[in-house]
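> call design_seq(struct)
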């Protein structure tokens, strides 16, 4: 109740808590395996595709009963938001998500993170500028 009386102080107009910025809290919750705090913070900040994958991986490690629904939701976002997603990349991502439950979690995690890394590198390539002739 008291928190609602304090005006937002963060650069985005959101309140910054005594524990820090919500994204920092989310990151710490992921690192510490704290599902409850990660979920609460995720609802507050709205997750990027990469952060959503971190939450899926957290479920794989600590809350497997939540994994399937979260993995399917992440896969839908990957298809919608992913740059250059092909049928093969979609198949690899879906297979890796299924593997999170089946047992080879570390290999599946590396595959999924690698897909996102390659996607990020592809979208940040600097396009050459046309040079004008004087």
């Amino acid at each position: 109740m008291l928190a609602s009386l304090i005006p937002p102080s963060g650069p985005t107009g959101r309140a910054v808590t005594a524990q820090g910025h919500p994204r920092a809290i989310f990151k710490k919750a992921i690192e510490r395996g704290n599902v409850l705090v990660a979920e609460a913070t995720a609802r507050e900040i709205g997750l990027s595709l990469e952060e959503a994958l971190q939450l899926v991986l957290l479920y794989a490690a600590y809350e497997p009963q939540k994994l399937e629904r979260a993995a399917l939701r992440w896969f839908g976002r990957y298809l919608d938001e992913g740059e250059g997603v092909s049928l093969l990349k979609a198949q690899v991502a879906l297979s890796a998500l299924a593997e999170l439950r089946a047992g080879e979690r570390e290999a599946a995690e590396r595959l999924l993170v690698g897909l996102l890394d390659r996607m990020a590198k592809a979208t940040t390539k600097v396009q050459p500028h046309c040079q004008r002739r004087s």
